[in-house]
Amino acid sequence: MASHRRLRLLLLAATLAAAAAAVSGVEEEEAFCGVESMPDAATLRPDRLTVLLSGYSERRLPLLRAIAGAYAAHPLVLAVVVLWSNPSTPDSLLSSFPPAVTLHRTASASLNSRFLPHPSIRTAAVAVADDDVLPDAAALSFAFAAWQQRARPGTLVGFFPRSHHLDLARGRWAYGAAARQQARYSMVLTKLLVLGAGLLREYSCSPELAAARAVVDRERNCEDILMNFVAAEESGEGPVLVEAGSIRDWGDPRNDDADAGAGAGGEEMKAVGLSSTGGAAHWEKRGDCITEFHRLLGRMPLRYSYGKVVAAAGGEQALCSKRGRLVRCDQE
Fold first, then answer.
1. In this structure, what CATH number is given to the domain that contains residue 249?
2. pTM for the predicted model, two decimal places
3. Is 224 assigned a catalytic role?
4. What is the count of structural domains for the chain?
5. Which domain holds residue 271?
6. Would you place residue 317 in the very low, low, confident or very high pLDDT band (cuts 50, 70, 90)?
7. Is 11 within a domain?
8. E strands, the chain, where?
């Protein structure tokens, strides 16, 4: 009886904590979405870039600090903002970031927090990146240049393509890798992409997207898919896939040995990653998200793109550690 009572109390505490986090997250969104926090678009710099890095895992902090410092040193980067979304992390662990990096503790662990229109953003373009991915200088510069050439509302420029298709047998949308035969894709992952600052406000502040943001919170997944919905709705076009330089990806499951760089082992990095541990269920859930977003919005804005913008000939850009060597992740 006592154990049942304790279990009920634990469940109640967890429910109350989740409710409190949801309320605090909504309050944070409202604070960032207020008119007084909205920058004058005419003052946003078109020649520089702000980097938004998401962080949650304390095991990844050494790597996150190193990645943030590398971004801050890039000549095109005006500011680096780390959005830390683990409420239980003590302040003492969040010290020692480079001086050029702004650390913001989000009000909740919501994945929606990675798109908060932070008031320190003073550039027209923003690079959104995971805490285990780092492009070399050439890759980031090329992606920014590709975005500048488009410079239209809703343009997404990224390195990691994905696609969707209608599963007629099941009457639902399915999510999968980009179709290599057709070179067709409809989404780019927020592992690393460049977008316009206005998309952050649209994603975070649009009342029409409130129910879709709630799906992201419920599933702890699919915030990148929803951003692709928002961008396609704004632009009426598919995203832009680019290939340039190289990108070190510590979270790619094709890393096959421990990489002690930046204080984290390769196996530990893979264990934290969401897509690398979810297997088929992860892909299935993301298809469910597409189907649910379509239902909630009443339309399917995703559009297909074909081909990519290439800086130089080459294969896949992501770099993994294999048998003690740093090689392209698709290399056997």
1. 3.90.550.10
2. 0.82
3. yes
4. 1
5. 46-319
6. low
7. no
8. 45-55, 77-84, 101-105, 123-129, 133-135, 157-158, 161-167, 172-177, 184-185, 187-188, 192-196, 240-243, 247-249, 305-306, 309-310, 318-322, 325-328
